[in-house]
Amino acid sequence: MNVNHPSLSFEVFPPNTAAGTANIKETLDRLQALNPNFISVTCSNNKSNIEETTLKLAGYINNTLKVPAIAHLPAAYLNTQQVTRILTELDSLHIHQLLALRGDIIPEVPRKDDFKYASDLIRFVHAQKPGFKISGACYPEIHPESPDLVSDIRYLKQKVDAGCNQLITQLFFDNDRFFTFKENCALAGIKVPIIAGIMPITNRKQALRLIKTTSAHLPKKFLAIFDKYEHDPASLRTAGLAYAVDQIVDLITRGAAGIHLYTMNHAETAINIQNTIGSLFNSSAQLNN
């Protein structure tokens, strides 16, 4: 990876309505024009239906739009037979990249027993398809279920040792915490690229949900934007986008390997960021299909 030209990538999720399906194709057409390094596709809430949701959308991205696609696989909801079938399907779609996760634990969705942790899934995929590029998730501010920082970094090292080629962070809003995390990874011998996951906050509903549910630290500057513009949608959008742009520029300047935008299936914010600071990124995909 050329550190002077870090990657730019996007995350989308499979829609569950007809209107959502129409919207996602329009969104993806617009994201394609930004020449991302890759687009990742999350799992739907019905995690047993990955072939009809995640893989179908990833196939469209990879083969129709000609943008490298990464499919999310949740370890907790898959068994070895399913993963073997999914890997075969990915091969047929010419997709040789995936993001291995444990997956959020949803009480109403039955878990499987084959892969307790993401590292178990990574190890299995690496053995079955050693040519696949495997991404893993990481938490700059510690996984909510980890007992402490040392344990969290140790578990992350296990993912990398199992065959993980790069890491993508959960969203965060305090860059200093990201770089402290990056230093801790280096001290632990974690040498794979760490891509920063960024979610621009551009509307009141999104901000309120984030404030209530996130474990990420919200800096005073971020909270001040919401306090001042909570009931002014246009100004909140402008200020939220400016915050994200400042965050991204700082990350790139200080050596982040790449930026992964959580788009929420909307292209406007990504387009605005590309128009503002697009020259800081690679102009074409670096990850090989």
Automatic annotation (TrEMBL):
Molecular functions per Gene Ontology: FAD binding; methylenetetrahydrofolate reductase (NADH) activity
Catalytic activity from the UniProt record: (6S)-5-methyl-5,6,7,8-tetrahydrofolate + NAD(+) = (6R)-5,10-methylene-5,6,7,8-tetrahydrofolate + NADH + H(+)
Required cofactor names: FAD
Pathway: One-carbon metabolism; tetrahydrofolate interconversion; Amino-acid biosynthesis; L-methionine biosynthesis via de novo pathway
Keyword check for NAD: yes
GO CC annotation: cytosol
Enzyme Commission designation: 1.5.1.54
A biological process from GO: methionine biosynthetic process
Alphabetized UniProt keyword annotations: Amino-acid biosynthesis, FAD, Flavoprotein, Methionine biosynthesis, NAD, Oxidoreductase
InterPro entries listed in its UniProt record: FAD-linked_oxidoreductase-like (IPR029041), Mehydrof_redctse-like (IPR003171), MTHF_reductase_bac (IPR004620)
NCBIfam families the UniProt entry points to: fadh2
Similarity-based family: Belongs to the methylenetetrahydrofolate reductase family.
Name listed for the protein in its UniProt record: Methylenetetrahydrofolate reductase
Organism of provenance: Liquorilactobacillus sucicola DSM 21376 = JCM 15457
